[in-house]
Amino acid sequence: VQLQASGGGLVQAGGSLRLSCVISGGTFRNYGMGWFRQVPGKEREFVAAISWNGDRTKYADSVKGRFSISRDNAKNSVYLQMNSLKSEDTAVYHCAADRAGWGMRQMEYDYWGQGTLVTVSS
Fold this sequence. Notes:
Distance between the termini: 37 Å
Number of helices: 0
């Protein structure tokens, strides 16, 4: 199973970006999906997660009301729409697949992508 995240880049504070993650080599609809982010020197932190059929979502408090996670099982893809970006959102964003749920802890995820860098300038 391979995950490939894309869509990162440089954006001004207050702007928006949409991240995408495509999964291959597995049955996408069987996985809960999550987004995590990591700043150098800090631990990877949970951002958002979505259930296998997309009917339930979870968000970190720091992104509630600004970020939205969604998925398209026909395209084997999960998305993270990020609005009202802040400088503290700067990080490498990773998508991950969970065979058993759609948790908030890294240890629950079975497969990881390499990440895409988001830089928010103030």
